[in-house]
Amino acid sequence: MGVTPRRSRGARASTSHVIGGSGLSVLPAVIAFAVAVLVPAAVIFHQSLQPNPLGDPSAPHDTWGNYHRLLTDPIYRDVLLRTLRVSVVGGIASVVIGLALVIGLTAFRRREVSSVWLFLLVAPILSGPVITVLGWMGLFVEGGIGYRVVNALRPLWGGTPGRVAETEIAMTIGTVHFVVPFIVLTLYPIARTVSKDLLEASLTLGVPPVRTVFRVVLPLCRPGILAASIVGLAMAMSAFVNARFLGGERNLVLTTLVSQLVNTFNPTLAAASSVLLVGLGLLLVAVYGRVLSRSVRREAAR
Amino acid sequence: MSARTHHRRRQQGWTGWRVLRTATVVLGFAFVLGPVLPVVVQAFNDSSVFPDRMRGLTLHWFTDLLTYDEFVAGTWTSAKIGIGATALALALGVSTAFAVTRGPRWMSGAGVTSVLMGPIVIPQIVVGLAILQVINQLQLRVGLAGLIVAHGVFVAPFVIRLVAGALETQGTSYEATAMALGSSPARVLTSVTFPMLRPALIASSVFAFTLSFVNVPLSLFLAPSDQRPLPISIYQQMASNRSPVLAALSLLLAVLLLAAAAAVERFLRVRLLQ
Amino acid sequence: MSLNGSQDASRRLGERDEWAQDVATRLGSSTHLAQARAILGGWATAAGSRRDVLKWLGIGAGVAAAPTLLAACGGDSSPAAGASATGIPDGSGRTLSVSVWGGETERAFKETVEPVFRKLTGAKVQYDTGSGGERFNKLLAQASAPTVDVFVNSGENVFQANRQGLLVDIDTRRVPNAADIADWAKLFPYGISYGLVAFGLTRAAGVPALTSWSDLWRPDFAGKLGLPGIGHTQMPMFLIMAAELNGGSESDIDPGLKALAKLDPAVLQYFWGEWADRAKAGEVSVVPEFNYSLLGANDAGVGFTFDFPQEKAIAADNTMAIVKGRPNEDLAHVFLDVAFDADVQTAFCGEWLGSPANVKATIAPKVAGKVPLAADILDQVRFFDLGKIATKRAEWTERLNSEVLPSWE
């Protein structure tokens, strides 16, 4: 068995003879998603257009006012931009780190990686995000290891040393930490199927190992990278615990904004922010998916 | 591996790769496990402050766990929810994976993918509140069922990913052969397709169960008051006091889940995470 | 050490059980004395009040109870046998659902109020927990069929819940102990506070005593402040204080927003766990915080001191209310009555660390010197118009987000 086989043209032509070829088996999920996602989403959307029942009754109401405010008020525009920044930067960084780990563990190895290593990598999922955030908070305190590392690296992108807790950097690092185990889980099964014979051939042809990784292993992992990127992007965007405790209100992103509004008697603006978050997430995933799947197809055509 | 390649390895940048790989793996593990380490230390630290420097070894945070009966009851509740959610997520995820990998071409496109990823993007706190509103408006008495459905749906995308990957890898040729030899589709499914999918199915079950078991935001609003999932108890304890008992509990949980996964690997003879 | 831990726990449980039995016995008999007085008074004054008396006696049980009640007054009563005879609703086989903060507050209710309530009524208690905001939103989402009987939350959340028509007015005749509750705690007809907490200024060792909220603007504290988060329960009151220091008021909030924007916080926080580590690292030296939270922080080695500013600290009212449209309204009233009992209040506040609202309650020995009596700090705390704040909070939060947060980055 070699490279992850993609469905051949031939198989596609005869879909009706393949089990599941009709695609009808998507129905249960469609129904379940409709019940558990679309109906509540409709409720949220409806709510976002109502006057705030918990606010000042004398305040004027405008049906689309919440959306108008979210898109034009500079502070909420900042929130939107920060959400995009953290999820794109965090999502991509997670994929890079996850990919590096997975390739580091699997490339050029004929023996299977011991499960112990993999389980250690997913340990943060098992202990839950709350407890690991506490760990990060301790590391980012002035003088802590995280504090020192971040401040040592800050000049690299022109930042000035100083407080690390409650910054966008801290939040991004926490988000990446939260997402990486999921990326490992998504990428590992694909990376381990990369043919060892192919790598052997590359080495035999005189290509050095590092270049082999970039020229052979990475291209073969592309479909996995696509899937992992979508998972990474979506999870980075919806991560709450990290954003709440490592970024805080001084670095509001949509999830923490929603939670703040829900808790300050502003359910209608919270609903509008949620709609925006979902819209943004789906859009980003679709655009990203499109770009990546095009590059995968291009690669396949080569 | 031939002697010739060994020779080549020594010659051509092999050290460079070793250094790069070691650096990557060491840094990567340090990053992933770094913030977990203080928690592990704290669980055995003889100090009621969390975090604190090491003041001596103790096991009493673990024995103290037993005096919190909500933790014991919560473990059981979370297990029930996890099992229900896993079953649902498997049913939804497997059937969808078939459609995505074998259905009409448009189903594997970016549009469908993003919709299927939808549950991951939606802020769970908000959807939890909205689901609660819907349930209440319809005057349903759902108990744990509401939570199970919500967890199942929100975990399903991960199952879809894993199973779809396995389906793509195994292709359709074995099934085609079986069919050509006269087996009915149902029989092909039970005796060829599913046995081949077994590792992916077990892996996604473990995965789905774990994700449900540690979920906070959905459970926050949907948990019935008489049955509180474990992570909710932990989360709320954390917001009012920060006893090292919580560190002990988190560690114990992670170890238990790891042990369960290891047991699955050993006794079901599959490798998870493959 | 480790084994003793659980033995200690079980011994404590045993002692608590005895204490709960004593209090329940006393409550059982005192309640029926009070009720007897009320019945006699009720019958004597007006015929119209008879209906009220029956209502107060509880659903169904009241009618049958009335004749036997007077007889029972003279003799002693065992609470189990006397439960229905004294007009205390029979709760056997029923469960009262209480919405409360998880963690320490839940623990305090579980260990002090619940055992007495259970002995008295035979009913079970279950807790629906979460932050104040989460539980308020949950109650709101379940408006058409609420699942909790007793709603314990901030005064503001209780006000909003009532504004949405989700609460009943508390029938104080069914809560005789309410007579001993201090006036400041009787916030609304539908909400009574069970304890007082002060939100004032706290400082690190080495910082001289703080005397005014305006000390926060002192240049030597710039970058050393742990300020309440934008959505903090006490934020609107803090904003009003800032406005008043600068010539504004509750209805002229702009000077407050401008003043807050000039502060330079090191931390924005919602509970002491979020600033404790940073204080220990020396990043934070002045924090507006609750007096009872500081006890927890100091247990964790923070070593801060609490000061009452001359403009007074901000009073925080943790309030109990009864949810409308539930079958356990009778039990809910008993639960409040138990919670407001002087002995129970003493024990409760010993766990919860706030000051009791019952004027006859004392400070539990184990927290003596740490928790003040409400009467002793009453002239140092200020009560705000919670209704006004609740309706303005959404608007003020948005203004804080856009006019203050950018300068806090």
What does this structure look like?
The complex is a heterotrimer of chains A (302), B (274) and C (409). Chain A has helices spanning 9-13, 27-48, 65-72, 74-106, 115-127, 129-140, 145-153, 168-191, 196-204, 209-220, 222-238, 241-247, 254-262, 267-301. Chain A has 302 residues and is mainly alpha-helical. Chain A starts with 8 loop residues before the first helix and ends with a helix. Chain B is mainly α and 274 residues long. Chain B folds into two domains: 3-44, no CATH class; 62-267, MetI-like fold, CATH 1.10.3720.10. The mean pLDDT of chain B is 81. Chain B has 14 helices and no strands. Chain C contains 15 helices and twelve strands. Chain C has helices spanning 2-45, 49-57, 61-74, 79-82, 104-121, 132-141, 155-163, 235-245, 254-261, 276-280, 291-299, 329-340, 342-352, 374-377, 386-408, and strands at residues 95-100, 124-129, 150-154, 167-168, 192-203, 225-228, 265-269, 286-290, 305-307, 313-323, 355-356, 381-382. In chain C, the strands form two sheets. In chain C, strands 1, 2, 3, 4, 5, 8, 9, 10, 11 and 12 form a ten-stranded mixed β-sheet that branches. In chain C, helix 1 (2-45) crosses helix 3. Residues 1-5 and 36-85 of chain C have low confidence and may be disordered. Chains in contact: A-B, A-C, B-C. At the A-B interface, helix 2, helix 4, helix 5, helix 6 and helix 8 of A face helix 1, helix 2, helix 3, helix 5 and helix 6 of B.
